[in-house]
Design goal:
The protein folds into two domains: about 100 residues, Helix-hairpin-Helix base-excision DNA repair enzymes (C-terminal) (Endonuclease Iii, domain 2, Orthogonal Bundle); about 120 residues, Orthogonal Bundle (Endonuclease III, domain 1). About 55% of the residues lie in helices and about 0% in strands. The two termini are about 30 Å apart.
């Protein structure tokens, strides 16, 4: 437990807010240095966070931000998105990749929010998961980033790195979420995703991680690492 706390404290200091991802910045607009981004991410907004998360699937972070900004200038409510013709919505989000599937998902989720939740994004995990297209990671991101609830959004980095560090031994993100809930102090839950996504993209990469640049190298068991730099 002490090693986990030390690792997270070091990484939290290493990755500051100005470097963090679009989704993480959306809950902390006051931490953004760019005036343009301050206008775009004026305040935490559950619906915008949800939509940006759905757009972020298999997409670079800078693309997620630009596409989200473009969409929200046209439509930033469930009612507005549900009224956009499908082909027009596909064109708006085209550069996000998988745009046909994403456009259908955005429209379906928007309609479900209107029909089942009076146009509001629910703050209960079971309610979010009842909407097709919203999975555990997306639900946890909404609860964490929009509603400040202690949840652990687990993406590929958040699943892979704790296994590499030797904290847990799991095979799926779902198993990782359950395992981390048992060993990770709750005070770290809010920042865990923010820290580990950037850690995984910049240093603790899937293949040949940059161990010589890693600020927590001495705390890592390097499980499954066959080569490093």
């Amino acid at each position: 437990m002490e090693k986990i706390s030390k690792t997270l404290d070091i990484l939290a200091e290493y990755f500051n807010y100005t470097e963090r991802t679009t989704l993480n910045r959306m809950r902390n607009p006051e931490k953004i240095s760019s005036e343009k981004n301050k206008d775009f991410l004026e305040k935490p907004n559950a619906f915008k966070i949800l939509i940006a998360c759905l757009l972020s699937l298999r997409t670079r972070d800078d693309t997620t931000e630009s596409v989200s900004e473009k969409l929200f200038k046209i439509a930033d409510t469930p009612e507005a998105i549900s009224k956009i013709p499908l082909k027009k919505l596909e064109k708006i989000i085209y550069s996000s990749g998988h745009y046909k599937k994403k456009a259908k998902t955005l429209k379906y989720v928007s309609r479900e929010l209107i029909n089942k939740f009076n146009g509001k994004v629910p703050n209960v995990k079971e309610d979010l998961l009842s909407i097709k297209g919203i999975g555990p990671k997306t639900a946890n991101i909404v609860l964490n980033f929009a509603y400040q609830q202690p949840t652990l959004p687990i993406d590929t980095h958040c699943h892979r790195i704790p296994n590499r560090l030797g904290w847990i031994k799991t095979k799926t993100p779902e198993q990782t979420e359950i395992a981390l809930e048992k060993i990770l102090p709750k005070k770290y839950w809010k920042e865990f995703n923010a820290i580990f996504v950037l850690f995984g993209k910049t240093i603790c990469q899937p293949v040949s991680p940059l161990c010589n640049q890693c600020p927590v190298n001495k705390y890592c068991e390097k499980i499954g690492v066959t080569s490093n730099r």
